[in-house]
Amino acid sequence: MPETKSEITSESRSETTSENSVDAPHEQALRPHAEDSFAHELKALAAADDRPRPERWRLSPWAVATYLLGGTLADGTVITPKYVGPRRIVEVAVTTLATDRALLLLGVPGTAKTWVSEHLAAAVSGDSTLLVQGTAGTPEEAIRYGWNYAQLLANGPSREALVPSPVMRAMSQGMTARVEELTRIPADVQDTLITVLSEKTLPVPELGQEVQAVRGFNLIATANDRDRGVNDLSSALRRRFNTVVLPLPATPEEEVDIVSRRVEQIGRSLDLPDAPEGLDEIRRVVTVFRELRDGLTTDGRTKVKSPSGTLSTAEAISVVTNGLALAAHFGDGVLRPGDVAAGILGAVVRDPAADRVVWQEYLEAVVRERDGWKDFYRACREVSA
Ligand SMILES: Nc1ncnc2c1ncn2[C@@H]1O[C@H](COP(=O)(O)OP(=O)(O)OP(=O)(O)O)[C@@H](O)[C@H]1O
Ligand SMILES: [Mg+2]
Q1: Do 278 and 214 belong to one domain?
Q2: Is 101 in the pocket of ligand 1 (CB under 6 A)?
Q3: Which residues contact residue 378 at a Cβ distance below 8 angstroms, ignoring those fewer than 6 apart?
Q4: Could you identify the atom of ligand 1 that is nearest to the CA of residue 111?
Q5: How far, in Å, from the CA of 115 to the mean position of ligand 1?
Q6: Ligand 1 pocket residue status of 145, Cβ below 6 Å
Q7: pLDDT tens digits for 236-270?
Q8: Hey, is 146 helix, strand or coil?
């Protein structure tokens, strides 16, 4: 049925882009897509890249990995690191996308699964927007296709009345589709993906046709293994994926590096002033989060209880960003203990009873005794009262 393919293929990206840009030109978007924010890096990489590219890939696997991990090109262009972590993880993820197996990014909340998925799609296909957001209410149509009901009622089922899902568009255009939070999707709806991933086709029985995936198509799914109310991934579906587990940052330095980079980027997009002396506070937030997460102080001497929240790197980033906004609007622009204390309290105390006890114990046993942490202790006491 080659005819089907070409008809549905004609649903081109330019159409989606112009649609989106009517709503928000990407220079004005609050959060531009990765391919727009880092367009100059992607362009420089494409120009410098002389390695073989899999069909319909914008870059070679090497260049995609460089885009994610950062580096300096021969022409001097600096590629900023997007993902900070083991190189091998990125290499395995990129390589998977060049095979016939899909990629599943798994990990606890806030380990950059969504972030990595977006950047991979941007680098491989130049488009990270072919996205299905998984929820408990995600219907099959979100993965397969839906109908334009006005057209359907007027003219019956036809190609014009068919509304392709992001997955269907990715298949017909040979692009990367993304499914966020795969395990939140009800099991029977998840199973829709089995045919897509193993047969590389999506039947449209109403039209007696099918959409076949063209070369270049692949899919990245993310799932976290911590949240409640989550459906299992059926083993049939799991076998269609290569699973890559994203770890928490290995060392405090790595985590401080991740937080400062992201805070700087986010701060710039919110027009917050730079906080040259903010690094001390970032270190402190990261230390508190890691110690509470690990149940042990950095020096390995004191055991502490862990609260119920995840205290992820992502939460550390938002605590510091909020602190910077406080410092900018109500302080002297320098990030101080008082600007992050309330944010830390909010992240730690999720369960008002149990977590509050954990926090008080940590404050008194660890924070109070630590050299140079007097101001921070006082600020925390103030907001905890
Ligand atoms: N190792 C890392 N390298 C770079 N950025 C990181 C890293 N870990 C976390 N981040 C940052 O944390 C933020 C949150 O990440 P993201 O939303 O992708 O997490 P997630 O794993 O999808 O979490 P969730 O399970 O809650 O959906 C991003 O801004 C990302 O930049
Ligand atoms: Mg996510």
Answers
A1: no
A2: no
A3: 337
A4: 21
A5: 6
A6: no
A7: 899 999 999 999 999 999 999 999 999 988 888 77
A8: strand
